[in-house]
Amino acid sequence: MAHDPTAPLGFGTLAIHGGQSPEPTTGAIMPPIFQTSTYVQPAIAEPLGGVYDYARVANPTREALERNLAALESGKHGVAFASGLAAIESVVKTLSAGDHIVTEENTYGGTTRMFTRVFERLGIEFTFVDSRDPEAVAAAMKSNTRLVHVETPTNPMMRVCDIAAIADIAHDGGAILMVDNTFASPFNQRPLEQGADVTVHSTTKYLNGHSDIIGGALVVRDDALAEEIRFVRKSTGAVPGPMDAWLCLRGAKTLHVRMRQHNAAGLAVAKYLEDHPRVDRVFYPGLASHPQHELAARQMDGFTGMVSFDVGTLDRARAIAEHTQLFALAESLGGVESLISVPALMTHASVPAERRERMGVTDGLVRLSVGIEEIDDLVADLDRALGG
Ligand SMILES: *Cc1c(COP(=O)(O)O)cnc(C)c1O
């Protein structure tokens, strides 16, 4: 059958071709790394393409990445940043002192730190809620609420929130919804399709996928919002370098292949752990035992390689994390190689113990970023470390 050029393309095809075209002077199939700070203008204030006057403002390598990410997230505009936190920061910077943000209490630690220690000082107000309960989000809305920020699944407890329900609540209150989609990746979840206004990524994680850059991105549909965000980025300067943009684009082209394996390995590891006598609890939205499995199955296409589990005590968590051989002891996630960490001692060490417990981050919690090595080897490594 002939290819129907109007048929929507599948995710894996978009990952490779979305927003891409050969470089016009040579036909190079990958965009060159435009390693330049400025551009020669043919006449005063007449930059080529109307935009290429200075590389903080415009860079073709970065734009190739941005078009690709927009395609993967079912968006219209991608905006790339120097880090995930810089991406989130830029959305907050479209607001003004006196504005209010409703945010998930179990969000990435660096996001909470930026909100409470940088933006509260600058006059932005925050209310932290458990966004698993849409009613809690609704109850926190105020007349000056301009932004609702959630993360789903959350780090490291794998809590899930209902994107469509929260988008309605945000919009009813005159606010926009930003969803941190770092953990799911666009292969598994596309928040804009469910009513969110902004998707944010730490591209450091699954999108780049090879643990070799720090990067961030926003994807939006609304032209005016994209314009505002680009204005903030141009004015504050948190742009990624062209080499990092190029690496991220190269990574994104294999996102679907990597994510299929991360999803399969994550589920296999979660099931193995669930049956292990020395494991008290497993937190993985793909398990039927996850309290929000039904919601996760409704809004996600797969459940990633992120798995947390509780082994009861800090000593046991530490012993396991220090005795795996394939799972490397490290923070971060989403790369091809498997990582293991103890949140209470690592990513969440700066959170007061009482608040940590309330978040569910117990002393005995171990977090895995299951990579794409052979599943049997990964399970055997955990089996050795857990003491069979
Ligand atoms: C890592 C991470 C961030 C921060 O991204 P950086 O690239 O490290 O600045 C934000 N949100 C989530 C969910 C993350 O995992």
UniProtKB/TrEMBL annotation:
<dbReference type="InterPro" id="IPR015421">
    <property type="entry name" value="PyrdxlP-dep_Trfase_major"/>
</dbReference>
<dbReference type="InterPro" id="IPR015422">
    <property type="entry name" value="PyrdxlP-dep_Trfase_small"/>
</dbReference>
<dbReference type="InterPro" id="IPR000277">
    <property type="entry name" value="Cys/Met-Metab_PyrdxlP-dep_enz"/>
</dbReference>
<keyword id="KW-0808">Transferase</keyword>
<dbReference type="InterPro" id="IPR054542">
    <property type="entry name" value="Cys_met_metab_PP"/>
</dbReference>
<keyword id="KW-0663">Pyridoxal phosphate</keyword>
<dbReference type="Pfam" id="PF01053">
    <property type="entry name" value="Cys_Met_Meta_PP"/>
</dbReference>
<dbReference type="InterPro" id="IPR015424">
    <property type="entry name" value="PyrdxlP-dep_Trfase"/>
</dbReference>
<dbReference type="GO" id="GO:0003962">
    <property type="term" value="F:cystathionine gamma-synthase activity"/>
</dbReference>
<protein>
    <submittedName>
        <fullName>Cystathionine gamma-synthase</fullName>
        <ecNumber>2.5.1.48</ecNumber>
    </submittedName>
</protein>
<comment type="similarity">
    <text>Belongs to the trans-sulfuration enzymes family.</text>
</comment>
